[in-house]
């Protein structure tokens, strides 16, 4: 819960700073979000790369395990495509883009905001953050 509150706090702080025009317009009109995201992904890669048991675990994993994420991907994309049929403001491709964040709210919201605008990026942020929170809490219950 503490981690979620910290993330929400930084998000709200960002909204406040953006609304009060503390940041020069040149800074947020550039691709700062994408650069920060790339640095974060690089750091995650370093963290995973230094894990001693990672490669051993990957080698020992059977290919049948890939059916679970594969079914999740197909089910999510089909479901969001069906939902996209009923939404008049967004295309099927846009709803599928939001759904394909798979809980990685920082990644999907930055990409979608960059290419499709802030409103769809905000929807991606909120929906994927909710997915990540739900998944994290469901793991604790088992």
What is the helical fraction, as a range of percent? over 70%
> What's the alpha carbon Rg, rounded to whole Å?
18 Å
Distance between the termini: 17 Å
Q: Beta-strand level of the residues, as a percent range?
A: under 5%
Note poorly predicted spans.
none
Order of helices and strands: HHHHHHHH
Multimeric organization: single chain
- The total count of helices amounts to 8
Number of separate strands: 0
- Shape descriptor: globular
- How would you classify the helix and strand content by structural class? mainly alpha
Mean pLDDT: 80
The description of the largest β-sheet is: none
Report on the architecture of this protein:
The chain is mostly helical. The protein starts with a helix and ends with a helix. The chain is globular, with a radius of gyration of 18 Å. The chain is built from eight helices and no strands. The mean pLDDT is 80. Helix 5 (67-86) packs antiparallel against helix 6, helix 6 (92-99) packs parallel to helix 8 (118-141) and helix 7 packs antiparallel against helix 8. The chain has helices at residues 2-19, 25-29, 32-49, 54-60, 67-86, 92-99, 105-116, 118-141.
